[in-house]
Amino acid sequence: MIRKKVLCSSLILFALLLSKLYSTPHNKASSGDKIVEPKLVVVPVRHGDDEKKEKSNSFESYMNSLTFAEDSLPMDRPLVESKLRKFFNRFSFKKTGSYDMHKKAETYLPMIAKILKSHGIPEDFKYIPLVESGLSKAVVSSKGAGGYWQFMPATARLYGLKVNGTVDDRKDLVKSTHAAARYLKYLYAQFGNWTLVAAAYNVGDGSLRGSIRRQKKDDYFALKLNTETGSYVYKLVSMKEIIEHPQKHGYSRYANKESETLDKEPNML
For all residues of the chain together, what is the average pLDDT? Predict the structure, then answer.
């Protein structure tokens, strides 16, 4: 009888132990284990509007960095920015440039810049021959201006160049660049501002003085000038940027010459 009671007690005890064992959660870590919770990684999503805003801010910063003869351009004026955009688009290498033009710039602009510097003329004026003649000595305008710098015969003679039936120093890049530097120096003495000097080179000093007197303004960007002169500085700045930063304007200096469409007009601007 006693044995039966002991056996019965043992079975009950064993059943209790089994019950406690299976009632304990199996996924509970021991006190010595550390539970590392997974981290949620949030990947920022860039929306199309954000990308457009970044590009717009980048372009605005680029436009604000533009200068002519080391002077900043008044980009706070809407008309200035819109005209620059127009000429960047019009004169980009995608449309009007060529392998030939860029190679001419690489070959001749350093020499032109060196001569201008010797006369105290800002380097940005080296782009005048590109705008005026496409760096071609053969270009002659309908009014008779000729050579790299498009001098009129009388002005050329005034600044030391020979122009007659047998000799035309306007076609000599070195001689005509020295003459142009002397003329630009004279214009600066008249106007005291390099942007106005560029305008005067295009329209003539007498004509520009008349516009300044009539309008009572001596700010190129505020003056109402003829279409060509009113666009002249914008052309120079655009050409400067296209030559110095060709990749920004769709031109690769390693482009295949045969694949480029060359301008047929001698004066592309």
Answer: 80
| Out of 5-19, 61-75, 205-219, least confident range | 5-19
Q: Which two tokens stand for residue 202?
A: 């295009």
The full set of domain ranges for the chain reads: 78-249
Q: Which residues share a beta bridge with 67?
A: 72
Least confident of 56-65, 69-78, 225-234, 247-256: 247-256
The residue assigned the tokens 């199309």 is: 48
- Is 151 in contact with 161 (CB distance < 8 Å)? yes
pTM as predicted = 0.72
CA distances, 235 to each of 16, 58, 158, 202, 216 (Å): 98, 22, 27, 12, 25
- Assess contact for 237 and 164: CB atoms under 8 A: no
Q: If you count DSSP H runs as helices and E runs as strands, how many of each does the chain have, helices first?
A: 10, 2
Are the beta carbons of 232 and 198 closer than 8 angstroms?
yes
**pLDDT per residue as tens digits for the range 127-153:** 999 999 999 999 999 999 999 999 999
For residue 68, which phi and psi values (nearest 5 degrees)?
-135, 125
DSSP helix/strand/coil, 253: coil
pLDDT in tens, 26-42: 444 444 555 555 555 55
Would the CA dihedral through 81, 262, 137, 244 be positive or negative? positive
C-alpha 147/C-alpha 180 separation (Å) is 11
Q: Which two tokens stand for residue 247?
A: 């990749």
Q: 78-249: which CATH architecture?
A: Orthogonal Bundle (1.10)
